[in-house]
Amino acid sequence: MAKEICDPAISELYKIKELCAEKCVDADIQKALSDAITLAEARDTYCQSISSGPSEALAALQRQTLEYPFDQAYKDGKTKKKLNHRIMSGKFEGTFLQSIVSMSKAKRVLEIGMFTGYSALACAEVLPEDGTVTTLEFDPFLEEVAKGFFAKSPCGKKISIRIGDAKETLLKLAEEKAQYDVVFIDANKDGYVTYFKTVIETNLLAKGGTLVFDNALMNGGAYDMRSTNKIALEVRKCNEYLKSRNDMFRVLVPIRDGTFIVRRKEDVFL
What we know:
Blueprint: H1 8-22, H2 27-50, H3 56-67, H4 70-75, H5 91-103, E1 108-112, H6 118-125, E2 132-137, H7 140-150, E3 159-163, H8 166-175, E4 180-185, H9 192-201, E5 205-214, H10 230-244, E6 248-253, E7 259-264, H11 265-268
Parallel strand pairs: 1-2, 1-4, 2-3, 4-5
Antiparallel strand pairs: 5-7, 6-7
């Protein structure tokens, strides 16, 4: 499996390294460039190595997701669209998400975009016994995959899955008077603004609640103004919209592909 690189600056350094080799640039310069790449990559590796690791259930979920034949599932007509293991949150961001949920003393978590269930199970693991995770997914195939993983963990019983269009499901949850302490948004990027507005306007976010957006940097496309990637442009649009909300307190954390944490100012500056 090719190494995943979330930092576009490192990708550019690799390109420069190849050019230097082709142009027979001075060996000392090439070595300095290689050292710079090694150092840049080491930061993420180091942070992960000293952070808490995943449970056995989460490690197994990640491993089996990485090995899952999603291409074949799509060819067989089992999935609604082509899926890729890179959609998964992964252990480092999963641990960060667990920290947010735990520090928030949350009991109710809402996730928009489940995939195979890594982040849902990660949240469930740090909730109290009576805590709940409600996770939204549009593809019925993934419900069966995730349920298989959840069944192998004692925390899986805290998770309920809602299949269908995310906005419609959010409206149904609002009708049920549901409220959540943490809302994790990691679905289709062109829906981010809609999901945010729906959660806020229908009072799904509880008093003192926290919203967390995944992929807020989108492989650098959010801040690289040269990017024409449609998904990156949607993420940038969402980021700018959130920036324009003077009623929101926000911080974009450059962990992996970017995690955007948003809260109501009235809940922060008490």
